[in-house]
Write a structure and sequence with these properties.
- This protein has a two-stranded antiparallel sheet with strand order 1-2.
- By secondary structure, it is mainly alpha-helical.
- The chain folds into two domains: about 110 residues, Ankyrin repeat-containing domain (Serine Threonine Protein Phosphatase 5, Tetratricopeptide repeat), CATH 1.25.40; about 140 residues, Serine Threonine Protein Phosphatase 5, Tetratricopeptide repeat (Alpha Horseshoe), CATH 1.25.40.20.
- It is elongated, with a radius of gyration of 28 Å.
């Protein structure tokens, strides 16, 4: 009597393997834009299947959205594919097509009921995806369909933050003109101004009244981030717009500390010329000289010393009384920067 359960299990395993292989064949045919083979396979394969692979996405419609093949999309829908069917690790087909810039496929999905406001943690929204991909026409289409320009997703930001990160002034302006909040910040994704990469986008945001000195916990200020990214044109534009060269942020230092850490001598010189304090100390971020010495930037170390930096200034690495005491010589020696060690000793530094 025990033979029947065994047969049942074997049949189940066989059916599962066949299903996986069939789904794999379908997804692979779509990946290769093989319309004829897709048509043949759909006679026997359910289009709402999942094949776990390294390809991504793992569903037929998701893959069709990725390659942007409208003919295949229509075949899948004719075989009753569900418009938002996805694997748990995939974005929706609409998000995939939007980010890839496949406008015709996006329109097909919308005509089949895909929602422009749906959000998924770790993937965002269709509008975020379109902005992230730099696809102006699709962003415009979603807005015309009622997509919320301020709908954010933790870890993915907002449509405006995505457009700012992508560095697309045209999409930034489109979103702002359609009601996007220029000051909306998201945990882990900063704010539009903090994430700005180019001067043209900066001007668009400032024209909307954004505070040039705004601070986002964990992301710093626009000027700190620009200095950290070694973006001199943006640093200069921010300072000219009124950015405070001495404004610090917990965990992110000051603009000068960031520039010194990155070894960007032109930005270091510019910030000091604009009044940046040379020996400024933020707990956890040390000071400009210590950071430059620790990261091996001899030219910056020499310049800071020439401008009066205290070579023996010692600070604590943290908030507690037992936090390590650090100075430039100690950190340069620890990191093996021999030239900096010798230079600092030559100008009177003591460990």
């Amino acid at each position: 009597m025990k033979i029947f359960p065994i047969i049942f299990v074997l049949l189940f395993i066989t059916q599962t393997v066949v299903h996986a292989q069939s789904c794999r064949s379908l997804v692979n045919a779509i990946k290769n834009n093989d319309v004829a083979r897709v048509k043949r396979l759909l006679k026997n394969v359910n289009p709402n299947c999942i094949y776990e692979s390294d390809w991504e996405p793992n569903t037929p419609l998701g893959m069709a959205a990725k390659v942007g093949n409208v003919a295949i999309g229509k075949l899948l829908f004719a075989a009753n594919a569900r418009v938002s069917f996805r694997d748990s690790g995939d974005a929706t087909p609409l998000m995939i097509a939007a980010e890839k810039g496949h406008e015709d496929f996006v329109r097909l999905l919308i005509s089949k009921g895909a929602k422009a406001n749906r959000k998924i943690s770790g993937e965002g929204t269709p509008l975020i995806a379109a902005a992230r991909g730099g696809n102006y026409n699709i962003v415009k289409l979603f807005l015309s369909k009622g997509a919320n320009p301020n709908r954010g997703v933790d870890g993915d930001g907002t449509p405006l933050i995505a457009a700012v990160k992508q560095g697309n002034p045209k999409i930034v302006k489109l979103l702002l003109d359609n009601g996007a909040n220029p000051s909306q910040a998201m945990d882990g994704d900063g704010s539009p101004l903090v994430m700005t990469k180019n001067v043209e986008v900066l001007k668009l945001l400032l024209a909307k009244g954004v505070d040039v000195n705004e601070e986002v916990a964990g992301d710093g200020t626009p000027l700190i981030r620009a200095a950290n990214n070694r973006n001199f044109p943006l640093v200069r534009a921010l300072v000219q717009a009124g950015a405070d060269v001495n404004k610090g942020s917990k965990g992110d230092g000051t603009p000068l500390i960031s520039a010194a850490k990155e070894g960007d001598l032109p930005i270091v010189k510019y910030l000091i010329a604009k009044g940046a304090k040379i020996d400024v100390h933020l707990i956890g971020d040390e000071n400009p000289l210590i950071r430059a010495a620790e990261h091996g930037h001899l030219a910056v170390v020499k310049y800071l010393v020439s401008k009066g930096a205290d070579v023996n200034k010692t600070v604590r690495s943290g908030y507690y009384l037992n936090s390590e005491k650090r100075n430039a010589l100690k950190m340069a020696r620890r990191k093996g920067h021999t030239q900096i060690v010798e230079y600092l000793k030559s100008v009177g530094a003591k460990e």
